[in-house]
Records
---
Amino acid sequence: MENPIGNNVESLRAFFIENVSKFCDKCGTAYKSDNIDVVTESNASVIIQAQCDNCKGIYMAHVIKPLQMTKKIPIKLDISSAMLHPYYVLGPISSDELLALRKKLVRVKTLEDFMEIADKTKKKKPSKKNDS
């Protein structure tokens, strides 16, 4: 790989186009810089999402920064990279969180019951976990 990976969004976009994929695998349309978004980044790696202007195919690449190694995969999403980022910041879901949610969902009998649980969950502010 010719270009070393940088730390700003523009250099990451250029890295994707030059070293990961210049064209959409599905339809062959060339990627432009504004088709590419950084989903999440740490000192060690970055996850980049590219969406084709033509066919709307979405690809994600996980780049290991120090080694400049990457793997690109096609992925079907109905969510933008901007909407994905907050979930990465929260970190993984714990077993306790899943069990607590399951206990609440077992009691759901109607849509109103579900909406009540959803409204209570929205009002609680999630705590940010360290990005390590």
Note: Helices lie at 9-20, 81-90, 95-106, 111-123.
---
Amino acid sequence: MCLLLIVSTLTFSQKKHIQLTNGLLVAQLDRPEEKFTLEINLAELFSAENVKVVPSLNLLKQGEVASVLVSDSVTNILKSKNIDTYILVSVRGFDKNFRLSSHFEPLSNELASSHLFPLFRDDILSVTFEFTLYRNNEVVANELLRIKNVDSKDKVMKKLRKKLPKLISKWKK
């Protein structure tokens, strides 16, 4: 029991310093226009922090499912561009406090799963985003980012643009 606890602590501490320099950005939203909006805005934020990212929309054909992103052909394209990290972004929910996930699906399962929450909906006060970073098919970071006092999709994006650079800086260390 003691050995298991020590191993868990070591694994957690290794995940804190991921030295993010690049990534494939995957917004897990059902609406194509929201996915486009989120990926483009996030790509700009990561670039401003000197993290090279490729939006998944650059690799997916229109209507293609995200699980294609772990296929051999796409993996080879990413390797040729020196991209080794998948950055998955989803809306975890609205108006609640959420806890970090303790159980993670394999990358292929996570990409194949559907996410029902839109970027914004009427009558909400806050939206919580979940960022999960995979490297070598293992989770290296998982963070929740809560955006409060929002009343429109534009306000969600504006506040996300303000808060996310701090999180990106943390991942770069």
Note: The longest strand covers residues 138-148.
---
Amino acid sequence: MKTAISAVLLLGFGMGCLSACAGSVTYPPPGGSTELGEAAPKPVPALMTRAIRFALDRYGDDDAFAINLPPGTPAAVYDEVIAGLGAGRPMLEVGEPAYHVTKVTLRWPDAKVDLVYPRAHGYYEFVTISFRRDLVRGYEFAGTRLWRTGNRPPPPHYTPQPVEAQAPPEEASQPQAASADGLEK
């Protein structure tokens, strides 16, 4: 009997630790901050990718699509999402049809991605795509909620700033080789 009670208490303690360690994440951070650093928290780009893929499969009709992630999203996250999708590009012009991820919320064990997607005749619709985390399989699709908002305008256009290519310091400091005629190459 003591063994069974100990096992139940240990299991309860373990589950409590797991849920406490998972914490919660809202991306972009609340409070109007758009400084997100070099990357989003680990599951966020994967959830964005899965949500856009779901919307493309269910509502999309275009292989050449643009995506617009929340303001402040680093270029590296755009690259990660586009690589995960296997296609797509960042939204380049205001008014261009695009799949807009507006928010990602993680509250253990659930995750939700708010997405605005294009429909026919320039209309947009808003959907929340829900995922549930399984300890073995990770985040799995759990459902959608389509918000009937009429012709919801798309979110503001955002394009990440490109990372400027800089020569590594050791290359810049190396002397140029001279050719046979004494001119630098």
Note: The beta strands are 24-27, 66-68, 89-90, 99-107, 110-118, 124-134, 138-147.
